[in-house]
Design brief:
It is built from 14 helices and 22 strands. The protein is an alpha/beta fold. The chain binds flavin-adenine dinucleotide and 1,4-dihydronicotinamide adenine dinucleotide (NAI).
């Protein structure tokens, strides 16, 4: 066992483990350190994976109850076994975190469980769970320490009744009344899970719209669909405080100075964003600069201001998404290896895994207007898509935004079933600098939902054929 490495990666999430894998592929020796005890970071342990497992099973549960009879499948006595549903989630998480351990080994990266601190550039001290320490010497250190839940001032998360996403992925019973603070990714995904399982869900959002950052037209229709499903929204409303009263919680909310009300809840989910996590890393002691939002500051090549120290993923600027962390990890290691690693931030898709899903890549209409870019729009509703009809999933539409002069695709926004799987075609189009006509003239299999992407692309030039 050596204590000398070409690359020491701090953090075993999508940023960290992918950095270690790419290092191995390029012939660099590496170690990947995580204090959590299992690899995979937030994403595999308490993020993407457990939430998607619960989104899948809760959607089936609701379908079995409400939709199967309409499709000629008689169901009687459909009931919830929450413990078994959670067991499926836990099994999937276990398989995937062990899979990361396997991938580290396969790529000759030493996975180390422990808390890392950078003592000097080139020197990392690891404190193992039993308190013993080990010093690693590194030609390069990659900080991939991720993010943590942003706190709501004056509210203490106990992960029992006032929960973050982590607690809400492991509730022992279905809360009768769930108040969600924040109408972003987590609030809407996990709010959907518990609504499907029987909770009465009210989402309190500070802004006058849901999912800030997503295309406004998409967000409006998305909200209407969620409301139709039974989710309630209080927009332009803030939480002034939460009081415990016996077993229940009283959430005091304010929409302006005069409009105050109290919501009764059994569980409150705080989902108002995440903040970069760099506690205890020793950054200030060695002088690694951060930006005004506390994120590790890097240049476009992921280098910090200290030679040999790099950063990727949630702990630096940009969207907090697993694939963004992965893309940066690959580019960062390629830069370390003397190659030309690069990430195209205009082509990073984002997906909300509700039903229907929302997926987008590139610019929104609002962004194009603000930037003064002239654009053309093509839209196509899933009500006119044959496959959507056959699978009884006609909610939503596809919207393609293309440059008014060059026809280059600038943004694609999909609200609909399987939107997350379909958005990759649009990401590829943006990556290749394709025009909307390129998508329109590309053969798409019939009958598939992806034909709606083609039809919306045709609509940019006014020749959508199926509406
Ligand atoms: P992380 O995954 O946070 O990993 C960082 C790791 O570093 C952690 O395991 C931590 O223990 C470790 N660490 C920190 N400090 C130290 C230290 N000093 N020493 C040793 N180890 C340390 N993104 C998507 O793209 N799709 C989704 O569907 C999705 N769903 C999500 C659902 C939820 C509920 C949440 C919370 C997040 C979700 N995300 C999703 C976001 C995604 O999880 C993050 O963007 C991603 O995990 C970031 O990867 P990372 O490697 O930068 O950091
Ligand atoms: P978010 O940034 O997506 O949404 C937070 C919401 O809370 C915003 O709408 C914001 O306006 C609102 N808000 C902020 N302060 C508030 C307050 N005091 N009161 C009421 N509302 C308030 O953050 P979220 O949902 O916590 O998720 C964190 C991040 O995790 C996401 O931004 C995303 O990067 C990642 N994530 C990604 C997922 C995916 O890719 N499917 C799923 C879950 C999380």
């Amino acid at each position: 066992m050596t204590d000398q490495f070409d690359v020491v990666v701090i953090g075993g999430g999508p940023g960290g483990y992918n950095a270690a894998i790419r290092a191995g592929q390029l012939g660099l020796t590496s170690a990947c350190i995580d204090k959590r005890g299992t690899f995979g970071g937030t994403c595999l342990n308490v993020g993407c994976i457990p939430s998607k497992a619960l989104l899948f099973t809760s959607e089936l549960f609701e379908k079995a109850e409400k939709d199967f009879p309409k499709l000629g499948i008689k169901t009687t006595g459909v009931s919830l076994d929450l413990a078994a549903m959670m067991a499926h989630k836990t099994k999937v998480v276990g398989e995937l975190t062990r899979g990361v351990e396997f991938l580290l080994k396969k790529n000759k990266s030493e996975g180390i469980v422990g808390e890392a601190r950078i003592v000097n550039p080139g020197q990392v001290l690891v404190t193992r769970p039993d308190g013993t320490t080990r010093t690693l010497m590194a030609k390069n250190i990659v900080i991939a320490t991720g993010s943590d839940v942003a706190p709501l001032p004056g509210v203490t998360v106990d992960e029992e009744t006032i929960v973050s996403s982590t607690g809400s992925l492991a509730l022992k019973s279905v809360p009768k009344r769930l108040v969600v603070v924040g109408a972003g990714y987590i609030g809407l995904e996990l709010g959907s899970v518990w609504r499907r399982l029987g909770s009465d869900v009210t989402v309190v959002e500070f802004l006058d719209r849901i999912t800030p950052g997503l295309d406004g037209e998409v967000a409006k229709q998305f909200q209407r669909i969620l409301q139709r499903q039974g989710m309630k929204f209080l927009l332009s409303t803030k939480v002034a405080g939460i009081d415990k009263k016996g077993e229940s919680l009283r959430v005091n909310v304010e929409a302006g100075a005069s409009e105050k009300q109290t919501l009764e809840a059994d569980v409150v989910l705080v989902a108002i964003g995440r903040k970069p996590y760099t506690d205890g890393l020793g950054l200030d002691e060695i002088g690694v600069k951060r930006d005004p939002r506390g994120r590790v500051a890097t240049d476009a090549h992921y280098k910090t201001n200290i030679a040999g120290i790099w950063a990727v993923g949630d702990c630096r600027e940009g969207p907090m998404l697993a694939h963004k962390a992965e893309d940066e990890a690959v580019a960062c290691i390629e830069n370390i290896a003397g190659r030309a690693g690069h990430v195209n931030y205009d082509a990073i898709p984002a997906v909300v895994y509700t039903a229907p899903e929302v997926a987008s890549v590139g610019k929104t209409e609002e962004e194009l207007k603000t930037a003064g870019i002239a654009y053309k729009t093509g839209k196509f509703p899933f009500t006119a898509n044959a496959r959507a009809k056959t699978i009884a999933a006609t909610d939503g539409f596809v919207k393609v935004l293309a440059d008014a002069k060059t026809d280059r695709v600038l943004g694609v926004h999909i609200l609909g079933a399987e939107a997350g799987n379909m958005i990759s075609e649009a990401a590829l189009a943006i990556e290749f600098g394709a025009s909307s006509e390129d998508i329109a003239r590309t053969s798409h299999p019939h009958p598939t939902l992806s034909e709606a992407v083609r039809q919306a692309s045709m609509a940019v030039e006014g020749w959508a054929m199926q509406m």
